């Protein structure tokens, strides 16, 4: 009988929706003038006149913006709307204004925009250490990953759980520049990532409310309820990484004009602010989530990829690639002599095994305790060939399993 465990072992990641096309301006007949106007306004462009009800004249942000302008029709009812849109799109593509590129990205791939700002001390002429930009990018990615995890399940601490699909879901996200390490924008395509953007929006507000509640009452209870909104240890650590070393930080989610505002979300959504004074509460909440996330009873099916024990007999340690039963990639477990022998024989003939135990939160849900009931699982020939190929690619197994070295 074929085990269902192998059905989701490997998944093809969808190609990036704008890998090859976003650099080119979209065709005018595919652009909604109202969406273009909304994006220009969002990115700081100013409307400075024009014929009311027909078109508007837009200039870019900044002191040098008066020398450049776009004529954007208000709707397609204007007779020359396609011509004006075409000229505006070409001008945006040729513009050196950073916001012009962001407008084009928003047109090419309708996206919710997530923005991070950090208030950091500046050096001479507004300079900053080169590590500041790296810190901002790392913290932003941590935050996106925490939101992606929360779209898979609700937990105070994920560890290794759901990490592979959550990480893969970020492949669709585009990231803008981070000038001076003070500001960064992520474009989350609506068709593949709106759930992520909504979850982050809700989780950030819940985090802010939980911090304020702790400051007012001294109690951490609000963090328990915040889990349902997507708050977790991973998110609190991301906020700590964003705020640490700054005078404060803000995060805002701006919804794609072409898709509208998601149900239950504010429009416009105000930025959520955090300060260095929030860090002790965030660290305490993260420790609380780590401490209180319970172990999980599981029945895991997987292929043995590594075995080790200190002598020719007795218990040994086994590392297993998980095929089903838990949302983690690998687990380690200690097996008694008989179970260790069964696992070794199954591996040598190219069969996965099934085992019962408890997936422990300590260590990031990477260890199975109380392992028992180890049995081989029958699979079809194609899957068996794949497992045998995997075995041949991991020949160090033989050295470790047979040498008895620890």
What does this entry show, briefly?
With 406 residues, the chain is α+β, with helices and mostly antiparallel strands. The chain contains twelve helices and 13 strands. Helix 4 crosses helix 6.
Largest sheet: 5 strands, antiparallel
- Count all strands and give the number: 13
In the predicted model, the low-confidence regions spanning at least 5 consecutive residues are: 1-22, 394-406
Overall spatial form: elongated
The overall number of domains is 3
User: Can you give the helix content as a percent range?
Assistant: 25-40%
Structural category: alpha+beta
Describe this structure in words.
Strand 9 and strand 10 form a beta hairpin. The relative contact order is 0.11. The chain is built from 12 helices and 13 strands. It folds into 3 domains: 87 residues, no CATH class; 185 residues, no CATH class; 108 residues, OB fold (Dihydrolipoamide Acetyltransferase, E2P), CATH 2.40.50.590. The protein is of the alpha+beta class and 406 residues long. The two termini are 36 Å apart. The strands form 3 sheets. The protein has a 5-stranded antiparallel beta sheet, with helices on both faces.
What secondary-structure arrangement, pairings included, does this model have?
Layout: H1 33-42, E1 46-47, E2 55-59, E3 70-73, H2 81-94, H3 98-108, E4 111-119, H4 131-152, H5 163-169, E5 174-175, E6 183-189, H6 190-217, H7 221-226, H8 233-243, E7 248-254, E8 272-274, H9 279-292, E9 296-308, E10 316-324, E11 330-335, H10 337-348, E12 353-360, E13 367-376, H11 381-392, H12 396-403
Parallel strand pairs: 11-13
Antiparallel strand pairs: 1-2, 2-3, 4-6, 4-7, 5-6, 7-8, 9-10, 9-12, 10-11, 12-13
Helix pairs in contact: 1-3, 4-5, 4-6, 4-8, 8-9
Biased composition (Basic and acidic residues): 1-11, 21-31
Region (Disordered): 1-31, 48-67
């Amino acid at each position: 009988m074929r085990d269902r465990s192998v059905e989701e072992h490997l998944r093809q990641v969808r190609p990036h929706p704008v890998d090859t096309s976003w650099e080119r301006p979209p065709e005018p007949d595919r652009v909604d003038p109202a969406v273009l106007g909304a994006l220009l306004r969002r990115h700081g462009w100013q409307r400075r006149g024009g014929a009311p009800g027909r078109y508007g004249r837009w200039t870019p942000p900044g002191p040098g913006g008066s020398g450049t302008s776009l004529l954007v029709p208000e709707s397609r009812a204007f007779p020359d709307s396609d011509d004006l849109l075409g000229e505006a799109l070409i001008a945006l593509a040729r513009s050196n204004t950073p916001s012009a590129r962001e407008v084009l990205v928003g047109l090419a791939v309708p996206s919710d925009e997530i923005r991070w700002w950090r208030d950091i001390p500046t050096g001479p002429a507004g300079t900053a250490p080169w590590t500041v930009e790296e810190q901002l990018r790392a913290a932003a990615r941590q935050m996106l990953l925490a939101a992606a995890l929360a779209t898979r399940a609700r937990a105070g601490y994920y560890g290794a759980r759901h990490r592979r699909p959550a990480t893969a879901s970020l492949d669709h996200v585009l990231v803008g520049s981070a000038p001076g390490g003070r500001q960064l924008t992520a474009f989350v395509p609506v068709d593949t990532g709106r759930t992520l953007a909504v979850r982050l929006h809700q989780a950030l507000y819940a985090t802010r409310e939980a911090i304020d509640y702790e400051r007012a009452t001294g109690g951490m209870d609000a963090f328990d309820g915040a889990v349902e909104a997507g708050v977790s240890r991973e998110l609190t650590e991301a906020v700590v990484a964003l705020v640490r070393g700054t005078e404060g930080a803000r995060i805002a989610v701006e919804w794609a004009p072409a898709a509208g505002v998601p149900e239950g979300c504010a429009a416009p959504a105000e930025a959520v602010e955090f300060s260095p004074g929030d860090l002790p509460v965030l660290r305490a909440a993260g420790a609380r989530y780590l401490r209180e996330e319970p172990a999980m009873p599981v029945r895991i099916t997987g292929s043995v990829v590594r075995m080790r024990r200190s002598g020719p007999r007795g218990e040994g340690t086994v590392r297993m690639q998980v095929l089903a039963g838990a949302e983690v990639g690998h687990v380690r477990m200690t097996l008694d002599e008989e179970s260790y022998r069964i696992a070794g024989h199954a591996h040598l003939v190219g069969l996965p095994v099934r085992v019962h135990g408890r997936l422990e939160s300590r260590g990031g849900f990477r260890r199975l305790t109380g392992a028992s009931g180890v049995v081989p699982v029958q699979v079809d020939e194609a899957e068996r060939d794949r497992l045998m190929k995997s075995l041949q690619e991991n020949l160090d197994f033989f050295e470790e399993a047979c040498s008895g070295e620890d």
